[in-house]
């Protein structure tokens, strides 16, 4: 019998559950076999971990605490599509000639620092996971994505978009997809998918604000402001302050984002409109953050983070489920009589999400 | 042969679509070979993609299949970029 032993260590350490699920259903036994075995092993590990955490106080010695330093690696795909590509910069290495590589490296660092300093989170899994990014993916590639294990950035075609590492909030956005995957794991379709997208925009924006030391009043609340090529008529790709107004261009069309439930878009495209309806929770966050003032990551960001990582948000959550949990989290963290929960409640009301 | 490609999703969430009609084209042969392989490797329903990954719908003479980044075959990748570049 042929074994695929070489694949197994990779599956058991790196591949996230949803990718494994997909692989396990693969027609190719070389993929499905190890993936299925890993899923079984993972569920065994998970139950063991639960037992371990219950006895954590009694257990000694404690597991090694994750480092306060990131572990970054940037790869170059050389305009091809093989991932991760050639390693071009590891943690602690000096900057090279390639500005794209340096921006990706710095963006990973800024994201790591924000999650650590603001929320005490060690990397995307909360346990020091290495941060990997690939730049120069494909040719004229107008996109960036999170593949379940790492970030991938295209160079843009220069006509509509420039290099996708140009906006730090885009780097933060992609890494936050990793955080969501390791926490609430919101399903990437429909309303839970739009919440997943909104988490990435919210923390992407906060990472930019944190880096620039901007208050909620000072921030531009734009996503991808540095991404549009000079010929495009628009300010950015999305606006949390005024969804639907980021661009209006001959080639690009008009920003389709709604700001309130009245304009919610029902569609099967774009995974059920995940990049469209995210405008609604994005705007609720903006309203809560600007009502509370100061640095947005300290209050509104903390409340959103508490919900994302608190364990009560389900994978299939709708806007109303999320909204309800933010009000609860605001009460729990800042007190019952506080302005925080009132600001949060009011924000959801203004975007038309009812808290039942 | 009519080859239609629609791309949705992506970080920007901006849709793109284009079509190539191969009739009368000198390179029709290559288009057909590429399109057949790309469709054969496609799926009947849209696969759940990765966050911000592009999703594609390929329609070749009335047959529709789906695929998404980054798990495209070489032929799918080549066909998609050719149609989006050269098609109308
Ligand atoms: Zn995203």
Automatic annotation (TrEMBL), chain A:
Compartments where found: Secreted
Q: Where is the Peptidase M4 C-terminal domain?
A: 184-353
Carries keyword Hydrolase? yes
UniProt xrefs under Pfam families: Peptidase_M4 (PF01447), Peptidase_M4_C (PF02868)
Primary localization = secreted
Record function comment: Extracellular zinc metalloprotease.
Annotated Peptidase M4 domain residues: 74-181
Task: State the name under which the record lists this protein.
Answer: Neutral metalloproteinase
Q: Which cofactor does it need?
A: Zn(2+)
Q: What is its EC number?
A: 3.4.24.-
